[in-house]
Structures are given as C-alpha cells and as structure tokens.
C-alpha cells in the first residue's frame, strides 16, 4: 500500500545553520563523544557540571548559578544540581575547550535560530551552549500530558538564537512532520521536538507518544 502523499521519510540528523557567523567546533569520538569548541577572546560557553574534558591555557572555568535559566526550584525538587559551569577565554588570542558527554551518547549541535528560537527536549539533554541560549524546565499543566514519572513532568526547553549542544543515545535520525501528519513513537525514543509539535499520550498497550505535525521537526 502506498504511503499517504504527506508522509515524509526519516533521515540521518544533519547540522544546519542559517547564521552568517559560524561558530567553529568539532565533534570527536564515536559512542562517547567530545565537542571541541573554539573560543575567541572574551567569548564564553555554558555547560552542565562535570562535563569539561580539556581546555587551553587561556581559558578559565567557574561554577555559577544562572537565574535567567529559571531551573533552580525544579532542579532542586528532583535532586539535581542548580549550577552550571561557565568557561571563558580570558586571553588575547583564540582558545579552545572540550566538553564531554557524561555517558555513551551522540552530541547533536542545534542552531536554535533555524528552529524559530525554541525546542523542547528530554530532561538533562542539554550539554552546553554558546551565545544566546536560555535553558528552562517547564511543567505541562494539560491533564492529557500528566503521567507518572519525571521524564514527562520535567521537560527541558531551550530558547534563544544561539548554538546549543544536546545529547541523544543510539542512532539519531530526524523527521519533518507535514501539516496533519501523525506519527506514533515510543516515549523513550524522542530526543527533542520543535514547539509546534502537539504531543499526546495514548495508553494503548505499551505507552506511545503520538505526534501531530504542524510543519514541524523532531529528532
């Protein structure tokens, strides 16, 4: 039977950026990866605690609480740290820093400007960011999405126009949902979605998360 005319196939995840100033980075390794980011003088990145792997001599690191990320109370309730590390190049020339995945995972670069400045991702998916990226954890008050477990209750939102790096385990693919297209996906297999994707939980045997497309993207 032929697929509906609006059905689109899965594709390997490919980094895309529409910005003129490309931030130089390189992802190293196979199953357990490290992202190496070049930093201009006075440029900084924000990363999750314990993720720094190596850095050049001109780069300095400090722990900081970032109130603009609005994560303190929710992170504290679920027993997670409320601080991030700030890595800054204090020297007169370019430096570099290596940020490592804390477990076996792929590091996925996300240019938020390409996705209308906002994506929703799994809790703890955020690894690090450069420039304008805000990290917050949101609670969906709609009754249809309230199920037991922090995985659904505590959703991580990345917003802004900067470059973010998130973590995804296994083989990472991407899918562009056309308007009206519906896809059933296992709950644990979604890494991130754009904010225009409508997600509903259906209790039909093993839990599945049904996604309704509005010219949207997820991976």
Automatic annotation (TrEMBL):
Pfam families: AIM24. InterPro entries: AIM24 (IPR002838), AIM24_sf (IPR036983), Trp_RNA-bd_attenuator-like_dom (IPR016031). This is Tryptophan RNA-binding attenuator-like protein. PANTHER family: ALTERED INHERITANCE OF MITOCHONDRIA PROTEIN 24, MITOCHONDRIAL (PTHR43657:SF1), TRYPTOPHAN RNA-BINDING ATTENUATOR PROTEIN-LIKE PROTEIN (PTHR43657). Transmembrane segments: none annotated. Gene3D superfamilies: Mitochondrial biogenesis AIM24 (3.60.160.10).
């Amino acid at each position: 039977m032929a697929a509906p005319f609006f059905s689109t196939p899965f594709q390997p995840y490919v980094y895309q950026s529409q910005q003129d100033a490309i931030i130089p980075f390189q992802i190293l390794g196979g199953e357990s990866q490290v992202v190496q980011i070049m930093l201009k003088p006075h440029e900084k990145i924000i990363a999750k605690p314990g993720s720094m792997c190596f850095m050049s001599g001109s780069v300095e690191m400090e722990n900081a609480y970032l109130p603009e990320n609005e994560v303190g109370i929710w992170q504290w309730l679920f027993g997670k740290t409320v601080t991030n590390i700030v890595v800054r190049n204090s020297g007169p020339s370019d430096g570099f820093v290596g940020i490592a995945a804390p477990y076996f995972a792929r590091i996925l670069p996300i240019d938020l400007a390409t996705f209308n400045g906002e994506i929703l991702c799994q809790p703890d998916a955020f690894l690090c960011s450069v420039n304008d990226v805000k990290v917050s954890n949101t609670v969906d008050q709609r009754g249809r999405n309230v199920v037991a477990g922090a995985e659904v209750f505590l959703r991580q939102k990345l917003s802004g126009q900067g470059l973010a790096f998130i973590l995804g385990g296994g083989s990472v693919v991407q899918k562009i949902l056309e308007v009206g297209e519906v896809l059933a996906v296992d709950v644990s297999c979604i890494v991130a979605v754009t904010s225009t994707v409508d997600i509903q939980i259906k209790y039909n045997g093993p839990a599945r998360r049904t996604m309704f497309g509005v010219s949207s993207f997820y991976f």
